[in-house]
Design a protein that fits this description.
Blueprint (H helix, E strand, L loop, with lengths): L7 H15 L4 E5 L5 E8 L20 E4 L8 E8 L4 E8 L5 E4 L25 E3 L4
Length: about 140
């Protein structure tokens, strides 16, 4: 049986395709603080302004998540800002949303690992579309 030879350039292109596709898939921002968040900002890393507050449907309770679908060509790196009801800010710079589909926002140097319990997937369009999911009571 003859063997098939794949040029290295083609192989490299095939291996690099999944992260590019992941750029337009929704990612989640989880509030892992003890307080409700009144504002969430998500912008491609390096932008000077935070842009609009994405929480236009109300606060994001502790344990709840907000799903975003980045626009095409936005890249994988995002800066995230969560503003809590007491005015405290939780920042996450250079979050790689292609590698980390769930970004947990918690005070301190690093967010805790993703919990074992699965969270439901939410859809979106071809631009940043907010979805708020409240924690069960």
């Amino acid at each position: 049986m003859p063997s098939v030879r794949v040029p290295h350039a083609v192989l490299a292109l095939l291996l690099s395709a999944p992260p590019a596709l992941a750029q337009t898939e929704p990612f989640r921002v989880v509030n892992r603080t003890q307080l409700a968040a009144t504002a969430l900002h998500a912008v491609p890393s390096g932008q000077q302004a935070w842009g609009a507050n994405l929480l236009n449907q109300g606060p994001l309770r502790p344990g709840a998540y907000f799903a975003l679908r980045p626009p095409e060509r936005a890249g994988c790196r995002f800066d995230l800002r969560l503003v809590l009801e007491n005015g405290q800010e939780v920042l996450r710079r250079e979050a790689d949303i292609c590698a980390e589909r769930t970004v947990e926002m918690a005070p301190g140097p690093a967010a805790p690992p993703t919990p074992a319990a699965p969270m439901p997937q939410v859809g979106g369009g071809d631009r940043l579309l907010p979805e708020i999911h409240r924690a069960p009571r």
